TrEMBL record:
Provenance organism: Streptomyces narbonensis
InterPro entries: Aldolase_TIM, DUF993
Protein name per UniProt: Dihydrodipicolinate synthase family protein
SUPFAM superfamilies: Aldolase
Pfam family, one: DUF993
Length: 389
């Protein structure tokens, strides 16, 4: 038994499982294109402060990407899950992109990399036309680097553009320029303010219906340059309506960590592919579910994936942007890294009761390859924080 803390005080006993789930069968995924947005592993020995440049453990970080590829998932690199803009600056992201893209080539893994504007963090982050011009230059620099590595580009939402743009026309002009410049089709990413409050009003309006029209106008003008869209609004109805309006050949990659089973399963009018942060801790189980879906067994797919939603909703609860803390906790407990340390000290962003519940839910799903190791590590964390075992 392990003693887990309760919110508001007190503890309760929990009996961890003793056996993991049966190992996944392996093999490529056929019916859906699935990316896991991968976390980065911090270097726990680096002498850093929250304001220091990112100190990454490159060996452990790349090993985790090989773990994702081994299950047939693609890697979405240098995205929100990698603490982009929350501990990982552009210099660190550029190094991460170069290293991961080279690793992908070496092992034959699929990779898509985030293109943003996080160079613009100081006085050069301007408003108005000068700000939009600076955003364009920053996007161009990052797009060139990603294309140089051979990775697919994901045009991420830009905090700087949200601050500088004067309305929908600025988005139409800027994204049109970038899509014309792109050498290969890209993924457009609409990240909602629940993930990053600085993105409120993206696409030129706080009205999501108006923003959707601008987003669709960008795609309609350049359908040959848009492989797909990643939608992270945590609104399943809106995502379904949006994907039904996409031009032929443009995919919808769900980024909805609350409703992903139903969105991936789809309906008689279509389905979503996936680019999800929750597939970082769920990789083996998620891949097994998609392989089940490949056989046409939608019920079997839902039977595997539906029980994971409670864990995902817990990790992504408000404030949603701190979901990375739970993701890294589970990677440590599962044995994918040797410590629970994050860039910028973000391991402190969630409460101890929150982390304890994440452990309990993940253990119940059988996500830990070695349940005894996970229990031992959770006990050590609880002890450090004053919960006697």
């Amino acid at each position: 038994m392990i003693r887990l803390p309760l919110a508001g005080g007190g503890v309760r006993a929990y009996a961890p499982r003793t056996e993991p789930l049966a190992p996944a069968t392996g093999g490529a995924l056929a019916s859906r294109t699935v990316f896991s947005a991968a976390h980065v592993v911090a270097d726990p020995y680096a002498d850093t402060t929250p304001d220091s440049p990112a100190a990454v453990d490159w060996d452990a970080t790349l090993a985790f990407r090989r773990h994702l590829w081994s299950h047939g998932l693609g890697v979405a690199e240098a995205m929100d899950t990698a603490q982009r803009g929350m501990g990982l600056d552009w210099t660190g992201a550029a190094e991460l992109i170069r290293r991961s893209a080279a690793e992908a080539k070496a092992v034959g893994g699929r990779i898509a990399c985030g293109v943003g504007t996080d160079q613009l963090t100081g006085p050069e982050r301007l408003t108005g036309p000068a700000g939009v011009a600076a955003v364009r230059k920053a996007y161009e620099e990052q797009l060139a680097l990603v294309e140089e590595t051979g990775a697919q580009a994901v045009l991420m939402a830009s905090r700087a553009l949200a601050a500088a743009a004067d309305g929908p026309d600025d988005y139409l002009d800027l994204y049109g320029h970038l899509l014309r410049q792109a050498g290969e089709p890209v993924i457009l990413h609409w990240l909602g303010p629940m993930f990053d409050p600085a993105l409120e009003g993206y696409w030129g309006s706080a009205d999501l219906d108006a923003a959707t029209e601008t987003f669709l106008d960008v795609i309609a003008a350049h359908p040959d340059k848009v492989d797909g869209i990643k939608v992270s609004l945590l609104d399943a109805r809106r995502e379904v309506e949006l994907r039904r309006r996409l031009p032929e050949g443009v995919r919808c990659y769900t980024g909805d960590d609350f409703h992903y089973p139903e969105l991936i399963a789809g309906d008689e009018q279509g389905f979503s592919h996936a680019l999800l942060g929750i597939f970082d801790p769920l990789a083996p189980l998620a891949a097994e579910a998609v392989r089940t879906l490949d056989t046409g067994d939608t019920a079997g797919f839902r039977a595997l994936l539906d029980p994971t939603v409670e864990l995902s909703r817990h990790l992504f609860e408000t404030p949603t942007r701190f979901y990375k803390t739970g993701v890294v906790l589970l990677a440590w407990l599962a044995g994918h890294q040797e410590h629970f340390t994050m860039l910028g000290g973000l391991q402190s962003a969630r409460s101890l009761p929150h982390l304890a519940r994440a452990y309990e839910l993940a253990d119940g799903l059988g996500l830990f390859p070695d349940p005894a190791l996970a229990e031992s590590r959770m006990r050590s964390l609880l002890t450090v924080y004053g919960v006697p075992q």
